[in-house]
Automatic annotation (TrEMBL):
One of its GO terms (molecular function) is mannosyltransferase activity. PANTHER family: PROTEIN O-MANNOSYL-TRANSFERASE TMTC2. The keyword Cell inner membrane does not apply. This is Uncharacterized protein. It comes from Pleomorphomonas carboxyditropha. Transmembrane segments: none annotated. One of its GO terms (biological process) is protein O-linked glycosylation via mannose. SMART domains: TPR.
Length: 261
């Protein structure tokens, strides 16, 4: 099934499903990094206030010790979550100097550059860090995400497959691959791939919310609502499904208008 909703609308659909409120554990770092940003509890469950608090806390630690790898990665991750991508790039540029040939640092830097719109530079950073004799799946996954943002889905998916050869049970790779299908309008393959991801031990709330998204895009609202309610509070889940119905209605109206024109 190829979806008729245009790419900008698909990108917009990803946003509301990532918004939810939940508490984060105290006495532990709020943000950690494993090639992807994760949060104590879930990054998808952080409010704007919690993201701002994380950025402030990690900013203070970074000021106290700007050469600490942990401080650099966590502060940059918090900045990215808060939309301060240019500042995240600046922090990670210094981190790249302090931690040369660090795949995790390079992946974070590449993602920050891509989020800031510097796609070509992001790819150079990722590819220069990758070691052919000891390839890192996190770098392949980051490279695939950048290629997707550049509008190169075939190359992106080939890169995700390289990542899966190294880490065949890594849920985040399947998630990225599914979103590649979704951005291309191939929602059936997106659903199939997200179901694979959701069944793996490392599946996150974001993955399950993305599955709810693709189900909703196909009009499977009952199952989409059931999954969303497990991840979000009932009001937010209901609002997300209503949003999906509205977007699909608009897409169908646009399609009909073009056919009549």
């Amino acid at each position: 099934m190829l979806l008729s909703v245009r790419r900008p609308a698909l990108l917009a659909l990803l946003l509301p499903l990532a918004l939810a409120a939940a508490g984060c554990a105290n006495n532990r770092p709020v943000i950690t990094t494993r090639g992807d940003v994760s949060v104590t509890g879930s990054v998808d469950r952080m409010t704007d206030a919690q993201i701002a608090a994380a950025a402030s806390a990690w900013g203070q630690r970074y000021d106290a010790d700007p050469k600490s790898r942990t401080n650099i990665l966590n502060y940059a991750a918090a900045l990215r979550l808060g939309g301060r991508t240019d500042q995240a790039v600046a922090v990670l540029e210094k981190g790249m100097v302090a931690s040369q040939n660090d795949p995790e640092m390079s992946a974070a830097y590449g993602k920050a550059l891509a989020a800031n719109g510097n796609f070509d530079q992001a790819l150079r950073v990722i590819r220069q860090t990758q070691q052919p004799d000891r390839p890192d799946w996190k770098l392949y996954s980051a490279e695939g995400a950048i290629l997707d943002q550049q509008g190169n889905p075939a190359e992106a998916r080939a890169t995700y497959q390289k990542a899966l050869q190294i880490a065949p049970r890594e849920a985040s790779i399947y998630n990225n691959l599914a979103l590649s299908y979704l951005l291309a309008g191939d929602v059936a393959n997106a659903e199939k791939t997200l179901r694979q991801a959701a069944a793996l031990p490392g599946a996150t709330s974001r993955i399950r919310q993305n599955l709810a998204l693709v189900l909703g895009l196909q009009g499977k609202f009952k199952e989409a609502d059931a999954i969303a309610r497990q991840e979000l509070d009932p009001a937010q889940a209901e609002a997300n499904v209503a949003y999906l119905k509205s977007m699909l209605s608009q897409a169908n109206t646009w399609k009909e208008a073009r056919a009549q024109g």
